[in-house]
Amino acid sequence: MAFSTDRPRRLRRTAALRRLVEQTRLHPADFVLPLFVKEGLAEPQDVASMPGVQQHSLESLRKAASEAVSAGVGGLILFGIPETKDATGTGADAEAGIVQQALRALRSDLGDSTVLMADLCLCEYTDHGHCGPMTSDSATVDNDVTLMRYASVARAQVEAGADVIAPSGMMDGQVGVIRDAIDSAGYADRAILAYAAKYSSAFYGPFRDAAESTPSFGDRRGYQMDPANADEALREVFADIEQGADAVMVKPAGPYLDVIARVASVVDLPVAAYQVSGEYAMLEAAAANGWIERERAIVESVTAIKRAGAQTILTYWATELAASLR
Ligand code: PBG
What we know:
TIM Barrel, 8-stranded parallel beta barrel, 10 strands, globular
């Protein structure tokens, strides 16, 4: 019996050999931390479906942001929850809106030591929970009326100091309209990270608790992508690049590694992926039950996302990961 002389195990024999040939290496700057800040909150509130994640007050936000930056994360992305909601989401572009307040506070605390991103959507600000104003028959989100709202929100966010605007509403034409709006407001130097391939996913469930953005009727399938589609992701990505995106995102991350890999193989700008709330909640729940090794599973999950081709990973574990890599 002739055994194979091909022995891949030679390079796995010791930790030092494995380290030498490791192809995907994580770095603190790979990670962007999503943060929720709620208007009128005196004390931070735990998010039940996301153990370890909180809705922040302005005070606790500043602390969490400083901790993340000290740990070395690549950036922060802010989500706001307003005190009052209405049909058009007026809290989103108010000069004293909660995200604008947060951006100013964090800029004054942190200067240019980190990248401040603002998620741009209206679902946290509308009373119906959809990502923009509805058509008059309430059948769907009015695409072009919503674009005008997004232009105004983008201006408010850059004026408050955002380095990066990250539109997540999946309205057609949103990147181009936002690019025009911030250019003409004198902020041609601010970047757009487009949520380009964003799927209509059940894995956003816990986020909607955290952001208080569950639609009061219907769902988002009329604007977010069908999880069954992959080619369409490229169409969305190329459209956003054409409209002026500086970087593109695939979301969710773990269940869409094939999409990340395809996007990364065809674009020549940075590719980000969002490890979403459901990905976080599942792993934390399994770990809390003793069914999975928590730290190893977290590292494996983000390594897989980077291996697939994402150079930036938005993850609720950003601070913990960055600190452990330091
Ligand atoms: C929309 C938005 C969502 C997420 C980020 N931006 C939710 C949605 O589309 O319903 C989800 C993030 C997560 O699940 O962690 N503003």
